[in-house]
Structure formats: C-alpha cells, structure tokens
Amino acid sequence: MASPLGNTNHIFSAMIKNYLKVAWRNLIKDRRFAYLNLIGLSTGLACALLIYVWVQDELRIDKFHKNDATLFQVLENRVQASGIWTAKSSPVPMPEALKKDMPEVEYAAYVSPVRQSTLSVKDDVGIKTKGKYADKDFFNMFSFDLMQGNPNQVLADPTAIVLSDVIATKLFGTTENVIGKTVDFQHEQKFVVSGVFKAPDQHSSEQFDFVLPVRMLKMIKENADEWGNTGYYTFITLKPGTNIDKFNAKIANYIKLKTNNEITYRTPFIQRYSENYLYGRFENGIQVGGRIDYVRLFSIIAIFILVIACINFMNLSTAKAAGRAKEVGIKKAMGAGRGVLMLQYLGESMVMAFASLLLAILFVFLLLPVFNNITGKHLSLFHFDTALILSGLGITFFTGLVAGSYPAFHLSGFKPAAVLKGKINGSVGELLIRKGLMVFQFSLSIVLIVAVLVVYRQISFIQTKNLGYDRDHVITFAKEGKLSRNEVSERFLAEVKDIPGVKIASGMGHGLTGHSSGTSDVVWEGKDLKDATEFEVVDVNYDLLKTLDIKIKEGRDFSRDFGADSSMIIFNEAAIKFMGMKDPVGKSVKLWGKDMRIGGVVKDFHFESLHEEVKPLFFVLSPEDANRFMIKVETGREKAVIARLQEMYLQMNPGFSFDYKFLDERYQTLYAAENQISRLSRYFAGLAILISCLGLFGLAAFTAQRRNKEIGIRKVLGATVGTIVMMLSKDFLRLVMIAMLIAFPVAWWATTQWLKGFAYSIRIDAGIFVVAGISIILLTFLTISFQSVKAALANPVKSLKSE
C-alpha cells in the first residue's frame, strides 16, 4: 500500500513539472516577446554580474592580512593656512616611541613607499624591481607569505634582503637554497638573502619585489630623534580589544608632548590599513571618500540596469495580459484558484530569469577578458566563490520574483465571467502602471546619459587643460648608478644636448604627479611664526624652466652667468600671494635658517592632480638633488633620440637598463581611476539604454498589433504613413519628455557632487542636457519608428478582415 506522503510528493512533483511545461509552451508561443525578454534580462544580469565581481574584488583589497582588525597606519592632520591637510608620513622616532609609551601597541614599523631599484648577481645586467624599506617587525604585522626565513629575524640584520619568489627565480633560477646568497643592490651595495616571500597578489594594494631593513638608511640614522622631519610611513598593530576612539584621543597631543610644545600644528591619528585603499581621501581633516565612491557608483548602476530589465519584463508581460485573458477565464471557470495561476505566471517568470542567467553567464565568460583589460584586474567568474554563486542565484531569483510579481497578481485577478464576455476591469490602472514604469525606466537611462557626458567632458578637460607647463614630447627617467653622481650626470646632460632632435635638457627632483617634498621652514618679513603651512620643494638644474616652458612672471631664471644663484629662490604665484608680498623680486627670505634672495616668480602650474588647488611652491638650484632627467625632443624625432639616449645611457651606466617614460604618460597615471570609470560608465550606460530600447521596441510592436484594426480604418479614410507613425509615436515621446523633466534635476545634482572632488572642473551647462535630451528622443523615435512604419505600410484589407 502506497503511503500518503509518497502520493503527495508524486502529485506535487507532477504539478511542478506541469507548471514548467506550460510555462515553457507559453514562452515559445510568442517567440518575439520571449526573445526580447530573454535578451533584456540576460544583458541586465550580465552587467550586474560583471559589476558584482568587480565590486567584490575592490572590497577584498588588503583584507587578507590576518591582523586586519588590528593593523593601522598612523596619519597626521596638519593645520595649514588654507585648512587641515592630512598627511601619511610620520617622524622617524614615532614607531619606537609608540611601542614604548603605549601599552596598547603590539608591533610598530617604519616603512618606506615602494621604490624602483636595480638588483643583480655576479655583475650581470640588473633587473628593474620595486622594493621597500621596513622595520624588523614588518612580516609579523603584514600577512605577506614568508616562504623561507624567520619573520622575527629576516630584517634584523642591516645587510639582509628579503626577495619575492618571482625575483628570486629571476635572479637565481630557483627559490630553493637561496638564503645566504648575495645580491647586488644598485651595483653599489651587497646584501645577503635572509628570506623569500610569495609575491603579493592582486588583492594587495602594495606590489613590491624585495624588502630591505629601513634602519640601514642614512636618513633614518640621522633623524632617529628628530620629531620635526617626516619621511616614511608608520604602521602599528594594536592589542585585541583596544578602543580606537580612546587611542586616537590618547595620541592626539603626542607630537606636541614629545617636542615640549614646539610643534603644535600636527595631530596624529590612526586609520585601519585596509581602509586606505577605499577610504583614502580627506578634506580639511575629515575622511570624505576615495575609491569607495566608485564602488558605490557602480553598485547603483548595477541596480539601475537590473531595475530597467525588470521593468521591461513587467511591461511586456502586462501588455500581453489582454491576449491571455480568455486563458485565465477558462482556467478559473474550470476551478483553478488564484494561487495556482499566480504560481504558473511566477513560474514563467522564473524560467525566463534562470534561462537569462545561463545566457548572462555565457555573456560574462565572453566579455570578461575585455572587462579585465579595461579595469586592469584579473577577475574570474569561475573560482568557486560561495558568495558569488549564492549572490548570482539570489539576484536571479529576486529578479524573476520582482519581474513576474505584478503580471502574476494582475493576470490571476481577472474575473472569469467578465473575461469570457470580453470585459477586462482595471485596464486604465494597468496602462497607468505601465506608463509609470516606462517613465521611471527612461528617467534612469537619461540620468546615465547625462552622467556619461559629464564624466567624458571632465576627462577631456583634464587631458587638454593648460597645466602651466608643456608636458608634450618630454622624456623623463630617474638617475641611477653612476648617473646619480653629479659630475657624471652633468657630463651626460652635456652630451644629450648634442643629440640631433633634442631641443633642451635639464633635471629636477620632482615627478610633477603629486606632493613630493615640503617644508614649513620658510620665513619672511611679517610671517606669523605660528603658521606652519608647507611649501612644495623642487630641486632643479639649470634650464629646467625652459625645458618645461614654465612661464616667468617676474625676475629671471637660474643662470650660469650669475655665480650666486645657489642662494637664489624662485616662488610660484600662489606662494607670493600667500606670503602677501608686493614687488617680491630682490627681497630676502630665510630657508632652513639660510638667507635666500627671491630672484623670480613663475606663473602657477599644476604639479598635483586637478583634484588639488595649486599650493605654494619654490625652486632652488640643486643639480645634485635633481634626481630625474627631463629631455625635450623635437616632434617626429622621438624614436631616433630614444635610440641614441639608450646607447649613451648603457655606455655611461653599465649594468642598468634604460627605462624611460614620456611626461604626458606619467600625467595620465594621476587619472587612471577616472579613465577606467569613464570607459566603464560609457559601456554600462550604453547597455542600459539598449535594454530600455528593447522594451520600447516590444511595447511599440504590441501597440501596433493592438491598434491594427484602427490603423486599417484610418488608412482607408486617407491617413498618410507619416500621420500614422506620429499617432503611434506621440504617446511614447510624451512619456520620454516626462522622464526628462524628472531625470535632469537628479542628474544635475549627482554630477555636481562628483565634480566637487576636483578643484578644477567643467561647468555643467545647458548644452549637456540638450545633447542628452536630443539623444534620448532620437533613440526613442528610431526604436518606435520601425514598428510604426511597418504597421503604417501594412495592407489595411488584411487588418480589417482579421476578425
């Protein structure tokens, strides 16, 4: 005898199978609408999956450290005349002092930024590497996998070096038995390999090839007790349970106490290390965002695109409701309950959603290489990430549920008697809901169009703005090895100037891609001695201003014709304005206690990104500290000049490879994130508009089909094709106009907020909205016109005979 439970399960299984069979048949009965829904949903899901994978990768950056919850960086808020500047650098004695004075601190380390250097063995030609200097507790604090060596000992000896497995393999051909072997650093010093670590993967914001003991540096030794100078970064790990707010309050006056109230304008505080990547932007001492803004932006775009895809599905399904009214009436008359019908229509929606998911996965698989190329990442959809799988299924289920919910409730609510008589109640409400959803859908699309236009124009503005210097056709590379010696670099520069195609050449101690070095030790007549505003320091060689075409407003450039130019200083306009000087040329200031004469004033130029205002700056003549060559080349002769430069470089600097960049390439690195966002936003906005147009295409086809008889009558009565096209198009165009009225204020507010992150930006003028409006109207009209013209050209006899 069969158990009741077994019968129940069999019946339930048969019902589900029947629902799926009926759902599939209904979907393929009208293939055109099914294809439109499938493409729209799959495109929306593919976009959402791509963005999800990118967002998850961004959120994972630096989270792999086992001490993530207790690993912090010490930052400083420094009071300036223009506001509070948040700096990452710290004084040399900070780590040891914190470890000694603060019982909450478990480890502390002084670490340099990543620097480029040359490593070699046995006098071979060196390989360019990126490395850093760090205190002995570095590998106890950071979870960079130490494959060989003791984390407590690898940086204890000042002659030790720790290599990544990749560099160890390049130098020695293996990672085995390399401890104890010798490596030449810059062909000047020898270090003994004390450990090997696994090269950081893409989830580390720090990419480096080796680590050297920071205590070997001359600067560290000379400033071991100096709280006034800052150079590198301080990291600490706190003991579990430490209250961060209380700890910040405790160290707020730490520098003030250590300097006996001599330094009162600097307030140290800590920020979790893993937050630096996403939350690295501060304004007036307050954390205001960073890359997290782009993570949020694309999360919103993913939601927008999914919502647009859902609206398409709902609109097309409700539009087809009238065609399925009799089906509903017959099923209800035969005893089908509303719940059964709701399950059927939700089932259809789920079948479509999960079919779309499979197609979306195929799209992502095909598009991921291109997406990785744009983002500079190595993302993968198939790495068995439980969160990704659950999120993908969850998003699909939610999309199917939301997209099918209204049609399910709407269709299942038809009254059988009214339906079988040809009367369907609530059609006005259905129409209003469909129009409202369409307005909402196009509002989102218009917001995206405006955003893309604003981002594109801002990026164009950045790339074309006059920076106050000429970055075109300027080759730049660092001084290394023998060329770091002043007499050798001067001889090299003299020979470079004789190369055919070289206009002029010089050197400077600044990369023009952000803050490099600063000092508040500039004293002028009338200065408020409490003021600690930092001036940017730029060490230059002769002819640097001419090489970069930096304009002199007053006075003169450094010149070999004047023997006393080592005591001459040149300020920018921002510095002169800040100091409140009139007729500054010839006046004296003190720099680091030395008398300096103002010989010239240059017009302001941008040495940081356009996110920053131009700050006070000065040039001093210091060829030995001008650690980068700047070589201006004639247009069209770059290739020949580079070949000759390489030949000369290798002759005068054996063992080092010639690695150069054009100055405009270095400038573009300042806006790598913005360029990525600009490209991605164009693609995703285009896909969102495509999805909207697919839905519009389907609705236009349905409208033409529903009004088939009316069109036939109008044609018989003499209506032209143009009249019929306008009749079918005007309702849709009216909805788009309403969407524009809603979207434009929202788009203006959103883009204005984004532009506030730039000190120099475009104005959002009416032209942007005119272009966006015309674009969406043309897209709408072109989408609708295909179906409208097709309906208008149809033979009226066929439509009038159809019933």
Folded structure, characterized:
With 803 residues, this protein is an alpha+beta fold. Helix content is 49%, strand content 18%. It has 24 helices and 27 strands. The strands form five sheets. Strands 18, 19, 20, 21, 22, 23, 24 and 25 form an eight-stranded mixed sheet that branches. Strands 1, 2, 3, 4, 12 and 13 form a six-stranded antiparallel sheet that branches. The chain has a six-stranded mixed barrel with strand order 5-6-11-8-10-9. The two termini are 56 Å apart.
The portion of residues forming beta strands comes to: 15-25%
User: Runs with pLDDT <50, length 5+?
Assistant: none
Q: Which shape, going by the Cα principal axes?
A: elongated
The biggest sheet amounts to: 8 strands, mixed
Rg from alpha-carbon coordinates: 34 Å
- Could you tell me how far the N terminus lies from the C terminus, measured between alpha carbons in angstroms? 56 Å
Mean of residue pLDDT values: 85
Quickly give the structural class: alpha+beta
Q: Share of helix among residues?
A: 40-55%
Query: What is the number of E strands?
Result: 27
Q: Please work out how many helical segments DSSP would assign.
A: 24
Write a brief structural summary:
49% of the residues lie in helices and 18% in strands. The chain has 803 residues and is an alpha+beta fold.
Strand and helix layout:
Elements: H1 4-29, H2 31-60, E1 71-80, E2 83-87, E3 89-91, H3 94-101, E4 105-111, E5 115-120, E6 127-134, H4 138-141, E7 146-148, E8 160-164, H5 165-172, E9 182-185, E10 189-197, E11 210-213, H6 218-222, E12 230-238, H7 244-251, H8 254-258, E13 266-272, E14 281-283, E15 286-289, H9 292-319, H10 325-333, H11 338-375, H12 386-412, H13 416-420, H14 427-464, E16 474-478, H15 486-496, E17 502-508, E18 518-519, E19 522-523, E20 535-540, H16 544-547, E21 552-555, E22 568-572, H17 573-579, E23 588-591, E24 594-602, E25 617-621, E26 628-633, H18 638-652, E27 661-662, H19 663-668, H20 672-706, H21 708-716, H22 721-755, H23 766-793, H24 796-801
Parallel strand pairs: 6-11, 8-10, 20-25, 22-24
Antiparallel strand pairs: 1-2, 1-12, 1-13, 3-12, 4-12, 5-6, 5-9, 7-10, 8-11, 9-10, 14-15, 16-26, 16-27, 17-26, 18-20, 19-23, 21-24, 22-25, 23-24
